[in-house]
Amino acid sequence: MSTASLTYESLSIPQEGSYIKRVILSCMIGNALEWYDFALYGYFATTIGQLFFPKFSSFASLMATFGIFAAGFIMRPLGGIIFGHIGDKMGRKNALLWSIYLMAIPTTMIGLLPTYEQVGWLAPLFLTLIRLAQGLSMGGEFTGSMIFVVEHADKGNRGLYGSWVVFSLLLGILVGSAVATSTCYLLSEDQLMAWGWRIPFLFSVAGGFMGAIMRRTINEPEQFVQAKKQHKEHFTPLTALFKNHSKTIFYVIIIEFSLSIGFYLIVTFINNFLTALLHFDKVASLMITTCSMVAMGMAILLSGRLSDKIGRKPLLIISTLGFVVFAYPLFRALEGSFIQALFAQMALAAIMGTFFAPLPATLVELFPMSVRYSGLSISHSLSMAIFGGSAPLIATALIQITGNNAAPALYLSGMCLISTSFLLFLKDRYKSELL
């Protein structure tokens, strides 16, 4: 029996006890940190655009800022390959430790960057390099977290425990929203532009430190320890993945349209859409976004629990159809009063939460243990890189071309219709043991 196996078994703690809670918490902290950073970048996109780019126009600066946002996603597939190999070959724990380091350090560095006025074109160059490093980390963190949690869970709780990983993403966004809102509320516009925007980014060093300590205290899933014993030394996860599971990678990319496009439109784009194009007050816009995240959180917890009772497939299909039918009228409602915009964004967020919660367990159940980290990281990263990172940029361009502020909803609805057609063929494995 291996040392790793003895260590795990010697804990003698049931799956429902304190150890599984510690596993979930360790993944939640790191995952929340990553999404705290991505949330901050989205919330301060308008400010960053003014500080790091020459002053052409507000629209051009916003496009440039979202362009760098998309650039960070280019590195995600490479991150998926690197962290996927580490996770399948060297262990889930090692991959998760390195991914949190690679996010915490660059996030802190954003808060220390000089502006365009100080160093000229070096400012957007440094910002781009940092976003690329963060994109590399994103290629392995979220998928690694959900794999680690779901592999530790018993069969009847995979959906619920996996949904807590999604919920941690939301916590990171909510903390980012709260910190951004407080910063905007407490400081004047001049103070915010001069130095105030840096403070939220500098806070991330504390979260990274806590997450790294937590992850050092947990062990590999027992299923992974046993499966690793059966692998030959020359086994290469990436080769086995593309040889035997390339169709599954393609399938995941398609069914994730609702996530990759919907999530970044709802969480990142709409906040800046409300301020830059609809001229909502910045604090009011952040309040709308924060309330919508609460609605998404409630939907996540309910949907995650339901997915263990009625299956993943019904919830995934219902939510994708929800976007197909309601995305356009809800986007139109964003152009109304504060109350109309608030309820419209909350409705969009609730649909997103219903889809997102069962996804970790669904994706983990699609790939076998030996190539799971690589399979999930690469497929999810490709989906995010191609469709997620470009979503705010495409949405902004669609509005500019058509003159219709609700044009992004048509893009979302059309792509969700494609996802729905593929989800009809999903084999729901919520009652089965992991492969």
Overall description:
- By secondary structure, this protein is an all-alpha fold.
- The protein has one domain: Growth Hormone, Chain: A.
- It is built from 23 helices and no strands.
- Helix 4 crosses helix 8.
- The longest helix has 31 residues.
- The N terminus is likely disordered.
**What's the helical proportion of residues?**
over 70%
CATH class category label: Mainly Alpha
- Termini separation comes to 22 Å
Taken together, the total number of domains comes to 1
Entry keywords:
435 residues, mainly alpha, Growth Hormone, Chain: A
Summarize the structure in short:
The chain contains 23 helices and no strands. With 435 residues, it is mainly α.
List the SSEs and their pairings.
Blueprint: H1 3-10, H2 18-43, H3 45-52, H4 58-74, H5 76-90, H6 92-110, H7 116-119, H8 122-152, H9 158-186, H10 189-196, H11 198-202, H12 204-215, H13 222-229, H14 237-244, H15 246-255, H16 257-277, H17 282-310, H18 312-333, H19 338-356, H20 359-366, H21 372-388, H22 391-402, H23 407-423
Helix pairs in contact: 2-6, 2-8, 2-9, 2-12, 3-4, 4-8, 4-21, 4-22, 5-6, 5-8, 5-21, 6-8, 6-12, 8-9, 8-21, 9-17, 9-20, 15-21, 16-17, 16-19, 16-21, 16-22, 16-23, 17-18, 17-19, 18-19, 18-23, 22-23
